[in-house]
Amino acid sequence: MTYEYDITLSFAGEDRKFVDRVAELLKENKVKVFYDKFEEADLWGKDLGIHFDTVYRKSAKYCIPFISKYYKEKIWTNFEVKNIICRAIEQNEEYILPVRFDDTEIDGIRPTIGFIDVRDKEPEYLVNLILEKLGSDKKIPIAQQFQEKRKDILTTTIFETFLQSSFGIQPNGPIISVTITNKLKGDYRYFYEPTFRVQNKNKKEIGFRLINVLNEYKFPLKIEHGEEIEIKYELSRSQLDLWEKFKKESEFYSICSTTVGEKFESNLNKVSSIIDTLKSL
């Protein structure tokens, strides 16, 4: 079935800041979205009661009600949600995609319907889920929109650690340190955990993750503008076999991306320096 819109958005004015960012990102990704700010000229002079009945009951593949205490209190959102529920009953199909700002219950939207809780999420997180719901073959995921390389934002270094014992100072193993510095425009960004790639001379690359993290962060991690964080990964001799699978002349680097799709690569480091250090333990 062909619809005028892919998505309609139903929300209270108090929650507009979040919804506005969602709508803008959807529009950037060529999603046909009904959002009142995009329809000002068309809505001018219309009987909104009749028009919204059509929009929320017939015009879209999915509807997203942004549920909050404000949503339950408003006259227009109560009108919209009645039409939304009516469509779901009439067609008996997956139509309502609830998003929650709090635990408010809305009559007619059963608590058994799967929902997305965005209390601690950014709009970009929700938009990626919407794009996935609509079908990635049709849309461009946000994570593929930007592929900027900024080595001033992401750096990778290797250093050795030592232990003081009765036998003197003994090597304790190498540590790979990844430093993320937010120099991007805006107040903050949410960064995902870094991953790593080994690059051979023939440009063939192998990706991997490191798990022995010395300082625990919860990703995606909010980093304010100008803030710097360091993530340390401990290496041990038991990992020597892994590193020796790579060619000694190879180089490795870290990759980190944000929830809005920017992707950054760090400086290169030699695999041989890891292998030589692990062999010395």
What does this 3D model show about the protein?
The protein is an alpha/beta fold. About 25% of the residues lie in helices and about 30% in strands. A 5-stranded parallel beta sheet has the order 2-1-3-4-5, with helices on both faces. Strands 9, 10, 13, 14 and 15 form a 5-stranded antiparallel beta sheet that branches. Strands 6-7-12 form a 3-stranded antiparallel beta sheet. The radius of gyration is 25 Å and the shape is elongated.
Indicate the multimeric state.
single chain
Number of domains: 2
* CATH C-level class of the largest domain: Alpha Beta
How many distinct beta strands?
15
Radius of gyration: 25 Å
Helix/strand/pairing category: alpha/beta
Largest sheet: 5 strands, parallel
Instruction: Give the proportion of residues in helices.
Output: 25-40%
Strand content: 25-35%
Shape: elongated
Low-pLDDT residue intervals, each spanning 5 or more residues: 136-146
